[in-house]
Design goal:
single chain; 280 residues; Nucleotidyltransferase, domain 5; 7-stranded mixed β-sheet; two-stranded antiparallel ribbon; 19% strand
């Protein structure tokens, strides 16, 4: 993937406010030369499984859980073959940032997205090859005014001016920062499932029982099964993988080289509030 001249980065987010963990951001980075082949593989899988509507974590039910697991298998096969990379970033509610201004809080969504794009994939660690790389970004539709979204796109475009990105060199043109409908992109469908699975487990939703019931509902058990399947696929690559912490680095370039990574984002200025953490 290091030889690619053009990369496509599909981004999504979920659970801005979870019980214990919040602000789940995810991205799938794929080389442009591999995109059509991977899309066709996923589309063929959906057709074989009769998955004709939008694939979303929230739609998992007992009959559909095995189908989702098979689609995720195709997604992870492409990942482990080195044709795409996945990154998940989230925050822990117990780690409370200090010194935030009203503007920081108002623009939290975009500030976190900016850090995610800049750091999560290790784009600054791409080995220079003597030719220019192009990065195209696809976001699910932004939940804010057109003016704020335009300002955010300007900040993302400005990343190419950082010294390390100039050395690669990496180009991020404003026209290549696009809002899309997630319904139209299978890579975003798969990312939604992985994002949803991680938020589900980290926020202890696998323990939820319907009011008045002594047992969990069928949908909750089905979702737990899909989560365990995803975790198992990750642990085939990295034994002992812990979804609640940042993935360790095997070498200085791990942020770029690893097929899959988690990043527990922490503000440089924060305090730990034990009352907002999970009770043991």
């Amino acid at each position: 993937m290091n030889e690619e001249r053009e990369y496509l980065l599909f981004c999504d987010e979920s659970d801005r406010r979870g019980e214990y963990f919040s602000n789940f951001y995810g991205g799938v980075l794929v080389g442009a030369s591999q995109f059509d082949r991977i899309h066709q593989r996923l589309a063929g899988c959906c057709e074989a499984l009769n998955l004709t509507s939008e694939i979303k974590w929230s739609k998992i039910s007992e009959p559909y859980a095995p189908k989702y697991c098979k689609l995720i298998d195709a997604f992870f096969e492409a990942m482990m073959a080195g044709h795409l990379k996945v990154r998940i970033m989230f925050t822990q509610n117990a780690r409370v940032p200090t010194g935030l201004t009203a503007e920081h809080r108002d623009k939290e969504y975009f500030i976190l997205y900016y850090h995610f794009i800049k750091r999560a994939f290790g784009l600054d660690l791409i080995t220079p090859k003597g030719y220019r790389r192009r990065l195209r970004l696809y976001f699910d539709q932004f939940p804010d005014t057109r003016e704020v979204a335009s300002q955010f796109k300007g900040f993302i475009r400005g990343l190419e001016d950082f010294k390390r990105f100039r050395e690669i060199p990496l180009t991020i043109a404003r026209r290549d920062i696009t809002e899309v409908r997630s319904h139209d992109h299978l890579l975003l469908h798969c990312l939604d499932v992985v994002l949803g699975a991680m938020s589900f487990r980290l926020n202890d939703r696998h323990k939820v029982k319907p009011p008045g019931s002594r047992v969990r509902g069928k949908r909750t058990r089905a979702k737990e099964g899909v989560y365990k399947h995803i975790l198992g696929r990750i642990r085939e690559w990295r034994r002992g993988f812990n979804p609640g912490v940042s993935t360790g680095c095997d070498n200085p370039k791990s942020r770029w080289e690893h097929p899959y990574r988690h990043w527990l984002f922490e503000s440089r200025d924060s305090e730990f509030d034990a009352t907002r953490s999970k009770k043991k």
